[in-house]
Amino acid sequence: MTLLQLKYFIQAATSGSINKASEVLYISQPGLSSALKELEAELGLELFKRTPKGITLTEDGVEFLGYARQVSEQASLLEQRYLSKKPSRRLCSISTQHYAFAVNAFVNMVKKTNATEYEFTLRETRTYEIIEDVKTLRSELGILYLNPFNRKVLEKIFWENSLSFHPLFTAKPHIFVSSTNPLASKDHVELQDLEDYPCLSFEQGENNSFYFSEEILSAERRRKSVKVTDRATIFNLMIGLDGYTISTGIVSADLNGENIVAVPLSIEDQMEVGWLSHSSIQLTKQAELYLEELKSVISEYVALDL
User: Angle between the 285-299 and 100-112 helix axes, to the nearest 10 degrees?
Assistant: First the structure.
């Protein structure tokens, strides 16, 4: 087993595709595929499940990745200290529900990264895909919420896939609306106040279970409902249609401007926002830096119990 093989393995696991990994590594696809098969043969383990859509890690692959990353990082430190080589390329991937504070923290993390080369990924995506990304180690961290409605179902999925949920803060539900919406001037709103306005929510694709919804009260029937796929669109519809969505109440003026405001929603519910990780994998220093920035950004809005 060589450090080069470990480098190839880590990149393939991160990319989820032999072709993509070979492009990053500047080697041929057959050469990379052969090197990975040689590593598996040497270990006597199947590290990847190979399908026409790409590759995913097996349970043995997940465990091996944790050790491979540690060895690779230590080798990089040795090279920097004793061989005066330039720092290795920094890698980090985050998957998150559509939260502005998660983007703010990502921006801060990138700005504070002291590296000449890096490759970072931020995926604002669907709840099911966040879980899949962390499960398969496509992402180191996932950002999502639990509440009394979805908790048992999602915690069961976390347990079955060796995932750990780490709470960040608990938020009372708010509606997000345009500053010109008549509801924006209220101290709080009741559910009946929302009946004449379009309810905006993030579409969850093939896994459109109520339990995967990014918005609470997902099982409630609305007279007017619009589903979208991205955060920019949902904000545009708040302004253009006087629509609303339900979320944490944390609004970022830096990213969303002054046109969107949060108004407390008077219901007996709460949202526990936290980060998801794979139980058997130690976080990289880059992921830990992201968590530090995430907690710092959130602390501007809420008191964290850290």
Answer: 130
Residue pair 158/276 in contact (Cβ under 8 Å)? The answer is yes
pTM for this structure?
0.74
Cβ atoms 79, 85 nearer than 8 A: yes
Could you tell me if residue 189 is inside a domain?
yes
Q: Is residue 215 part of a domain?
A: yes
Dump pLDDT digits (tens) for 221-261: 888 899 988 888 888 898 999 999 988 888 766 655 578 88
Overall average pLDDT of the 62-77 stretch: 80
Based on the domain organization, do 154 and 63 belong to the same domain?
yes
pLDDT value at residue 305 = 42
| Rg, C-alpha atoms of the chain | 22
For residues 40 and 45, give the distance between their C-alpha atoms in angstroms, rounded to a whole number: 5
User: Where does residue 120 rank: exposed (0-12), middle (13-18), buried (19+ CB within 10 A)?
Assistant: middle
What range defines the domain where residue 244 resides?
Answer: 170-271
Position 304 in a domain: no
User: Both 148 and 226 in a single domain?
Assistant: no
* Nearest alpha-carbon partner for 222 in 245, 247, 249, 250: 245
CATH of the domain at 80: 1.10.10.10
Query: Does residue 8 contact residue 32 with C-beta atoms inside 8 Å?
Result: yes
Residues found in the chain? 306
Please write the tens of the pLDDT for every residue from 156-211: 999 998 899 999 999 899 989 898 999 999 999 999 999 999 999 898 877 667 88
Residues 262 and 282 in one domain: no
